[in-house]
Amino acid sequence: MFKRILIANRGEIAVRVFRACRELNIEPVVVYSQADSEALHVQLAERAYCIGPARSADSYLNVDAILTVAQATGCDAIHPGYGFLSENADFADACAQAGIAFIGPSGDVIRAMGNKAAARKLMVEAGVPVVPGSDGAVDTAQEAKALADSIGYPVLIKAAAGGGGRGMRRVFEPDQLIPLFEEARSESVACFGSGEMYLEKLILNPRHIEFQILADSQGHVIQLGDRDCSIQRRNQKLLEESPSKALTPELRERMGAAAVAAARAAHYENAGTIEFVLDPEGNFYFIEMNTRIQVEHPVTELVTGMDLVREQIRIAAGLPLSRTQEEVTLNGHAIECRINAEDPSNDFRPCPGKIDFVHLPGGCGVRVDTGLYTGYTLPPYYDSLMAKLIVHAPTRLDAIRRMRRALEELIIEGPANNTDLLHQIMHHPDFIRGNYNTGYLEANMDTLLAWSRSGEEEPKA
Amino acid sequence: MFKRILIANRGEIAVRVFRACRELNIEPVVVYSQADSEALHVQLAERAYCIGPARSADSYLNVDAILTVAQATGCDAIHPGYGFLSENADFADACAQAGIAFIGPSGDVIRAMGNKAAARKLMVEAGVPVVPGSDGAVDTAQEAKALADSIGYPVLIKAAAGGGGRGMRRVFEPDQLIPLFEEARSESVACFGSGEMYLEKLILNPRHIEFQILADSQGHVIQLGDRDCSIQRRNQKLLEESPSKALTPELRERMGAAAVAAARAAHYENAGTIEFVLDPEGNFYFIEMNTRIQVEHPVTELVTGMDLVREQIRIAAGLPLSRTQEEVTLNGHAIECRINAEDPSNDFRPCPGKIDFVHLPGGCGVRVDTGLYTGYTLPPYYDSLMAKLIVHAPTRLDAIRRMRRALEELIIEGPANNTDLLHQIMHHPDFIRGNYNTGYLEANMDTLLAWSRSGEEEPKA
Amino acid sequence: MTNQEIFELMARFDQSGITTFKLNTKDFTLELGKGGSAAVPAAPVGAPAPAAAALAPAAQPDGPCITAPLVGTFYAASAPDAEPFVKVGDKVKKGQTVCLMEAMKMMNEVHAPCDCTIEAILQEDGALVSFGDPLIRYREG
Amino acid sequence: MTNQEIFELMARFDQSGITTFKLNTKDFTLELGKGGSAAVPAAPVGAPAPAAAALAPAAQPDGPCITAPLVGTFYAASAPDAEPFVKVGDKVKKGQTVCLMEAMKMMNEVHAPCDCTIEAILQEDGALVSFGDPLIRYREG
What average pLDDT does chain A have? Predict the structure, then answer.
């Protein structure tokens, strides 16, 4: 096992990894930018080094500085957390060259999965379903028509050079395909000077479902169930739960098997996530693999009772997985809410600043992962995540009720945040029924914000 | 199910019950003394009533005031927590007479189990082992000798009127019995004017092992495993864990069956605890039954995944237990540390006062039950419990390591407390080996305090 | 002024809700201040109007008050259709009954603490009133 | 007023929730204040000496300092047995090399920001130094 691990990250995930190290009797070494000298991970650590100014490029993305500290302090491994250098293949290579274990997959695997076309090709070969479509450019409208007829409508036509909706058309009727294809191509030629077109199946109202996988250096690959991350705003996840209400046991089984096949195909090692879209008919398609620990990993920890960061460290140290697939059992239901320093009533404007007072929820079935404390100042340079509230209960409805009361107990005085929006979601009939997809938040935001406003006014009345 | 529950308690257990109510969609009504107007349970509640001045007798023990609030606010049940009125049979009767459900057993059951002689008799009839001894007074030295010979040595001779060790003798050798009996009796006559003597088996180096039971109104009785509460100071528990390292699976099975038999014999209903002493040879003896929720109930919640306060409320509402005995599974290991506002280096002097800053631990496998917040003032009128730190992990060693890091994260600025003493226990070889009994803390206090002092001096060096 | 006297002033100030303190005597001046207003948890998010906050440190009315000697229901009169014991402006004698507090079906008379004039009735008839809450404001004499 | 008495006042003030304190007597004036900086978590309980605390807001030495332009190992000389680039009391020219910082096997020269006199070498030779930490204190001219 490692003696000393450098934690190349900040915020709640740095604290999360720090805790796993302490519990494994591994000495954590932390690094921080000048803007983070008062951060909790620095306060907790016995060994902390400033690696540069506030700007991420000069600090948390500063490979030379991070490797310098790792070598000078005798670290035998680096945990990259999420974001920053966590999916940087060159950094993984640099660690390997420096003789330091990178807690994650190899640079080659990161590179392979980071290339969407290559990853798609690999999955097709492994028999994992991908969104049906042209594997390359479609040259003519007739070719497009034939392809669309074969994969079924609706389809999406998009220009290789397109953006902002330009050169893009949704086609619901077969006889509209040829005219719309020509229209989109003309638009693309006019706007971008390129007529290169692609075509793929249009997934309407998809769910975002992902599977957690673990793979060790001995070739064992297991999956730890699914997470439903469909509550998103502009592709930013806001709330995750496990298990998804959209999956039947049979579908869960099939998707889990596909996730394991995907990880095997990638020769994956360490913790990773296979992301799928799921259409309302129960068809699922691989979209990408995340080659790192995810923000939402605690929901899986609560339903499996496994410590994923601990597993990551064990895997990187060459140890086998602590459980076989048969030993993985999923118990109860978990929900995570991301408490962000952003103001929903003000177009989600980020709100860094001083935390005058914080009171975190606790008690039965409640977990909080955060870097906040009373008196801490949230710097404006990084993401707006303040805390993750995660609850676990025997049933989904119990978990929703537990999350409501946890959100009610949470008090953050200082920067505006999205606690109330999350609380309203917990009362929204479609959420309670589990009847939502990735369009949920956009479709219901006005309602949720109106409820939020009326709740605020009540005490004044 | 109940619509509204009055919580007749304060501190962390009032918050605990409050949370269970919120999660069941039951409206909690809280009461408080004048000294507790800033307490967390009052801050959280929408309906809170002051029931009297600081002194418990005038507030939390004020039956009339509590029933007045319960009736005036339309509560259909009262949760008494622990301490205060929780084992007051007359209060349970008064609730019943007022048509309000008392969340606990009936007054008659409380009364029966509160009388030690009656409870002992009941257990003997039910075949539950009790500490062998004279069921009443022993009249002569010869009678005492015959009894001692039959139950085996060592034995304890004690005067009915005795106290402070007077009139008490431990007898290890048979030929010492008669002279020591006469000696003790003479002492008792001289000191207390009474020669009434009892004799019982002396249990050397016992463990304090208790079993959690649940019994519903339909006659279902289940046990939820054991808790080892042997780490005590002057009969005050400081740290509890489940499962006990002292029990083999076979012994756990037998003790669990005895606990269920005991609860059945008492015609018990609601949550209760059967306390045993366990000698080093694996013999166990009933000592008493606690007819309420215990401070240390969260360790059982973590290993069973069951919410005991929720079960209490369900039982009182006439619902069946949510699990059968077969459905109860014990997973992993849990430890609770009681953080008390008392100064171990100053003979455990209570230290109420203002909490200038508090930072509670969090993350994977850590639960905190507390009424503290930054700025709160701990009043001097009640017990010194500040917070309960509870951890859960797959193995006992993992749980110990998790507790260490949780204790390291806990920061309370203001009143002195016992956090460091607990941290030292987590590093003590006998504790780590699970090799301890009720004499552990007294025997090791000097060592632990010395470690604590040396740790404190280090930063100054 | 001795340090001991200053300590007493500081302690009293510290415990009070007062945030600034200035004392001028011919010999010396003492100024104390408290910043920040130490945060206390606010009302639960999204919850209805926080009744507790209203109950807890009830805004202190001007002048002395007769407070509730126990938690219970406040009655201004001996029966639903009877005249109230006292009305604003009444002059009452020490020991005179000014209202009733019901707890556990028992009616408890509340008496005037001194000869006084009633200035305000602070509770609704039939309201559940916490221990120590002000019931009736009065002026001595 | 004796220092002892002032110490007592300071201690009492420090423990209290009071944030400003002014005392004027005919002989003297005493002002105490406590800044915002609400409590930050202290060192982990029972843990060895808190290195982080020492690193974080390193006690600011008197006078301007040359600070570490990157995190790395500090070297006062170009080789283990060579003379140090500068010694206390040396007068150096703007741009003159005053020490080396090693990061990733690369030696980075650190230069004097102006003509100055070296007042103190603040790091041990070979120590790992955080970005921005003071290396060498100087006096202009």
Answer: 95
CB A192 within 8 A of CB A166: yes
In this structure, are residues D129 and D101 in contact, taking their beta carbons and an 8 Å threshold? yes
pLDDT, mean over chain C: 77
Distance CA B128, CA B263 (A): 10
Residue type, C20: T
Distance from C-alpha of B319 to C-alpha of B322, rounded to nearest angstrom: 8
- Which residue type occupies D2? T
pLDDT at C51 over 80: no
The two structure tokens encoding residue A107: 């640079």
| Best CA proximity match to A372, nearest among D36, C40, B367, D41 | D41
Give the three-state DSSP class for A13: helix
| Residue of A10, A16, A233, A292 marked catalytic | A292
Between CA A319 and CA B112 the distance in angstroms is 56
Identify the band that residue D26 occupies on the pLDDT scale cut at 50, 70 and 90: low
CA–CA dist B119, C117 (Å, integer): 61
Asked if B423 lies within 8 A of D45 by C-beta distance, the reply is yes
| Torsion angle (degrees, nearest 10) of CA A180, A182, A186, A189 | 110
Interface size between A and C, measured as CB pairs under 8 A: 35
Per-residue pLDDT band for D46 (boundaries 50, 70, 90) equals: very low
Contact D70 A38 (CB under 8 A): no
User: Which among B6, B15, B25, B26 is positioned nearest to B70, based on CA atoms?
Assistant: B6
In this prediction, residues B89-101 reach a mean pLDDT of: 97
Per-residue tokens: A155: 């389809």
pTM attached to this predicted model = 0.86
- Residue B202: pLDDT band with limits 50, 70, 90: very high
Residues in chain B closer than 8 A to C72 (CB atoms): 65, 68, 72
Q: Could you confirm whether A292 is annotated as catalytic? A: yes
Phi/psi for C14 (5° steps) reads -60, -40
Edge-first strand order for the sheet with A197-201 is A166-171, A155-163, A197-201
